[in-house]
Amino acid sequence: MEQITIVVEDRxxxxxxxxxxxxKAKINIESLSAVSLSGKAVxxxxxKDAKRAKxxxxxxxxxxxxxxxxVIKLEDKPGQLSHISxxxxxxxxxxxxxxxxxxxxxxxxxxxxxxxxxxxKKLLEPYLELEE
Length: 132
Fold this sequence. Notes:
4 helices, 41% strand, elongated, three-stranded antiparallel β-sheet, 132 residues, 2 domains
């Protein structure tokens, strides 16, 4: 899955505008995170077609950052996040961002952005969520 990040002035309607543009382009938002910091809104969207999302948002004067994320499934029980983060730390892989996406059938689904994606993919292969 791909992650796109947009930083805009924090204003009423910013999310409505961006989600309208994506919807009109038939780009489905799989998950999102939004936070307001010091007059700025940081919006992180998870979409399947990040390239297309970046194109349509850029055409509408939004600056878009694109990055790959790993989607993993963990057993929904205490200690699983500690286990995964310890595996990454032992291999000197830095977690740049992590988002909880959903829970389903006793599993938690998380999206991770790391500094060494290829290395993390190999390490976390048993936990990777297969994408369509």
